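call fold(seq) -> tokens
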Amino acid sequence: PVAHGYRAITNEPIREGVGNFTSNLNEPLTFVNHVLQGQIPDAGATFGRFVVNTTVGIVGIFDPASAIGMQRTTEDFGQTLGKWGVQTGPYLVLPLLGSTTPRDLFGKGADIVLNPLNYPEFESDGEIRIGVAALGGIDAREGAIEAIEELRNQVDPYTTVRRLYDRTRALDIGNAPETLN
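ret:
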């Protein structure tokens, strides 16, 4: 209901700006994971995107970096662990977190620790971080409304989601055969 309400009270340009803003906040984490994976050129490109979008794009609300050909990449510590050869483990569906595996669950915790934006301290920093995380979650859920409705119409939604999750993560990591068994 929150995602539907968010869609009802905002227009597409506002939702796009919110998505750009929350994606821009994840760029430092993507940078760190590129470095940990030894992808130095990608790390440099991610750093460049962050600088351009944070300055010219007004704290990331706009995405001028994409307009000049700097493509967004996303990396997380679960992907880094996958690149390092750590196996996925069993598929899990957890409250609030949704689909995951032990490797990706550990990766989500490590992402919180590795994210350089979590270290500066200032007045009301906890409330701001919670608010930004909630806004990002609502925005992501709003963007998936149609996909979720389509999944709900599947004969076996659990199996469909599990296969989609496994394939997507395998492609993200670049080792598709590993998790498609």
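The two ends are 36 Å apart (CA to CA).
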